[in-house]
């Protein structure tokens, strides 16, 4: 289980109002969850939220803090573009053979928004933010008495001044961990949330990233070399590789062909869980269902025992 990246940043920057609103999207999940009045929907009663209950106190299921001003919470369509473009601009400026284009993900953003409304300046924890049936996530936080999304992303990126590529202990993770997440080649999906927390006058910005960065070889967030060299021909835009897909459930993306290599029982093209095809391994029962809540691999390896499959 890798340590979740991330540290926290305090910054006081010039005042620019941040006007939030609810997110509009184009799939059922979004329609159901992202209208403001439903944001505190319970995981017990909202069908699309039930899957999160397998993780104790999942961020998707927590109620907003009374500190959060829900009138201004959220991320506008214009801010979504600002967030995605600023990440992709920084990413395309690296000399990377394997840098993927990032795109917005409504479910990732839903969880980030819930955490922002919790008004805490700590991370929620990897088990509490991961998406059952999809992927784990990294997280960057930023807060200050004022701020915009572009400023938040710039603060993270500016850690490049302390970063040595492949420099091992020459790097201090606490000083470069936001930067390495921003330019983590394999982090393809991004979703962010914003809340203003009243009593301490704090603007809180949260971005979640899937798959997470800062795993193995955290000081090699990408492969140095000719931009897009590893990417399938015709998929390179602005030095970024765009396979237009993400591989779920531990599947890995082969960017030379833009296809997913899936774990057993998970099906192409994106390694979705098919409960008809995927059987629990023999070991599942002997370990016991309590492991579903404590060990990150269990829900993926034992979806029936862990109640990921919908018949349960
Ligand atoms: C929340 O923000 C709105 C818009 O800025 C403001 O009018 C309202 O007074 C705030 N509510 C609280 C309780 O601070
Ligand atoms: C799951 O697999 C079964 C058996 O191969 C197939 O009939 C079914 O259509 C699949 N379901 C989905 C949602 O792909």
From TrEMBL:
GO terms for cellular component: extracellular region. Residues 1-20 form the signal peptide. Keywords: Signal. It holds the Pfam family CAP. It comes from the Eukaryota. Residues 78-217 form the SCP domain. InterPro entries: Allrgn_V5/Tpx1_CS (IPR018244), CAP_dom (IPR014044), CAP_sf (IPR035940), CRISP-related (IPR001283). This is CRISP. It comes from Mytilus coruscus.
């Amino acid at each position: 289980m890798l340590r979740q990246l991330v540290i926290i940043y305090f910054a006081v920057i010039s005042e620019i109002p941040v006007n939030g609103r609810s997110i509009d999207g184009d799939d059922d999940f979004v329609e159901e969850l992202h209208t403001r009045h439903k944001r505190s929907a319970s995981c017990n009663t909202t069908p699309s939220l039930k899957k999160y209950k397998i993780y104790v106190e999942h961020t998707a299921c927590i109620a907003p803090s009374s500190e959060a001003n829900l009138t201004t919470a959220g991320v506008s369509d214009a801010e979504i573009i600002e967030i995605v473009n600023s990440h992709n601009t920084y990413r395309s400026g690296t000399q990377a053979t394997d840098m993927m284009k990032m795109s917005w993900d409504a479910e990732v953003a839903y969880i980030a928004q819930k955490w922002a409304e919790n008004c805490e300046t700590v991370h929620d924890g990897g088990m509490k933010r991961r998406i059952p049936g999809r992927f784990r996530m990294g997280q960057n936080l930023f807060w200050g008495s004022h701020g915009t999304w572009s400023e938040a992303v710039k603060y993270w990126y500016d850690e490049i001044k302390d970063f040595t590529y492949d420099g091992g202990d020459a790097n201090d993770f606490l000083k470069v961990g936001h930067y390495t997440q921003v330019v983590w080649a394999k982090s393809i999906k991004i979703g962010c949330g914003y809340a203003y927390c009243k009593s301490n006058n704090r603007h809180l910005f949260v971005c979640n990233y899937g798959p997470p960065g800062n795993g193995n070889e955290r000081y090699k967030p990408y492969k140095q070399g000719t931009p897009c060299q590893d990417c399938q021909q015709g998929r390179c835009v602005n030095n970024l590789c765009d396979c237009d897909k993400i591989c779920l459930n531990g599947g890995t993306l082969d960017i030379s062909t833009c296809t997913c290599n899936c774990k057993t029982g998970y099906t192409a093209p994106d390694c979705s869980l098919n409960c008809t095809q995927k059987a629990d391994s023999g070991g599942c029962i002997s370990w016991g269902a309590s492991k579903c809540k404590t060990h990150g691999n269990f829900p993926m390896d034992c979806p029936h025992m862990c109640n990921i499959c919908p018949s349960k």
